Amino acid sequence: MVRSISIAVLILASFAEIAFCGEIIVAREVESYFFPSPKEKAESEEGAFENTYVYDGNVITRIKVENKKRGETLTDNTKYIIEKKLANFSFSGDPFIRAVGFPGHDAIEILTFNKNYMQNVKSTGDYLIVTRYRITKRYQQ
């Protein structure tokens, strides 16, 4: 019994490094790859966007998208459901959180948060975007 409790405490402690419930997470784009239709060449872009997320229970909500290059800010309310059926530890042993959302009528988006980075994959019927973000701020609501 004590061993089971100890293992549970260790697992919960490892997730504390990723995100706390009610935490606000700000992530700045490091690199992004846009893949249009198979007939077109992929494009690469760096550092244009900074997104703000709120982690609350089983949901991560994107509340703000800033385009730093254009000076534009959009409020957002896209909800991502945390996926608990998939593995939550990488091959290196680092814990992460994965969440799935539907940001448009023809899109699916997967977010993966670890301690320092976030990865985002968005797919529609016409294109695919793969983006890596560095987590720049974390604070409680």
Cross-sheet strand order for the largest sheet: 1-3-4-5-6-7-8-9
What is CATH's topology name? Porin
Q: If classified by CATH, what would the architecture be? A: Beta Barrel
Large-scale geometry:
globular
Number of helices: 1
Given as residue ranges, the uncertain stretches (5+ residues, pLDDT < 50) are 1-17
Taking all Cα atoms into account, the compactness measure Rg is: 16 Å
Helix content: 10-25%
Q: What is the terminal separation in angstroms? A: 35 Å
Largest sheet: 8 strands, antiparallel, barrel
H and E order: HEEEEEEEEE
**Proportion of strand residues:** over 45%
CATH class label? Mainly Beta
Counted up, domains total 1
Quick check: average pLDDT?
82
Number of strands: 9
Structural class by sheet pairing and helices? mainly beta
Structural write-up:
This protein has 141 residues and is mainly β. It has a single domain, classed as Porin. The protein is 11% helix and 57% strand. It has an eight-stranded antiparallel barrel. Strand 4 and strand 5 form a beta hairpin. The N terminus is likely disordered.
Short description:
With 141 residues, the protein is mainly β. It has a single domain, classed as Porin, CATH 2.40.160.
Secondary structure blueprint with pairings:
Blueprint: H1 2-16, E1 23-35, E2 43-45, E3 49-56, E4 59-67, E5 72-82, E6 97-104, E7 107-113, E8 117-124, E9 128-140
Antiparallel strand pairs: 1-2, 1-3, 1-9, 3-4, 4-5, 5-6, 6-7, 7-8, 8-9
